[in-house]
Amino acid sequence: MHMLDFGKVAATFADTLSGAAVRIHPHPDSRSRAIAAAADAPDRWHAQLLGYQRLPAEEFLIAQPVALTIELAALISRDGVRTTCGECGEEISNEREVIDTGRILCRACAGQIYYVSERGSACGGVLAGLPAAIAATT
Q1: CA–CA separation, 65 vs 43, rounded Å?
Q2: Less crowded by CB within 10 Å, the N or C end of the chain?
Q3: Residues in CB range of 124: below 8 A, 6 or more apart
Q4: Which residues lie across from 49 on neighbouring strands?
């Protein structure tokens, strides 16, 4: 799985053999259609919950064929390709490692950190590269 956050609710699926891809996203009228399909619901939230269950997928989702702009091979890597981070020791899959001055590192230990653990450290205890405001809370 490869995630890019564009602030949208959509998913693109690719056939790894043919390279064919389809993007699925909500129909612009999906909420109102769901509410109309469950007019008996006690409130809007429940109407959407029930409406999406009652409607056929074609009524609230749009599927369109697309062409990927990213090489499929770069997204899926190769079967069985794994290595170990030289800093934290965690396994790295799918060729996502970073080589830094000859050392194999996971992206977090290489400074591409997106989280800090409750004990105040990022992967392998590396806090280098964190903004001061975040580091101060650890």
Answers
A1: 36
A2: N
A3: 85, 87, 88, 89, 90, 106, 108, 109
A4: none
pTM of the complete model:
0.64
* The token pair that represents 62 in the structure block: 């749009």
Q: Taking residues 40-56, what's their average pLDDT?
A: 97
Q: β-strands 103-105, 91-93: how paired? A: unpaired
Residue 36: both structure tokens together:
């109309």
Instruction: Name the residue ranges covered by the structural domains of the chain.
Output: 11-73, 78-138
Amino acid at site 46: H
Contact 27, 33 (CB under 8 A): yes
Amino acid 40 reads: D
* Alpha carbons 13 and 21: distance in angstroms, whole number: 5
Residue 124 reports pLDDT greater than 80: no
Distance CA 83, CA 89 (A): 9
Tokens of 98: 């970073």
What is the Cα–Cα distance from 79 to 71, expressed in whole angstroms?
16
- Which pLDDT belongs to residue 115? 75
Q: Are 93 and 81 in contact (CB under 8 A)?
A: yes
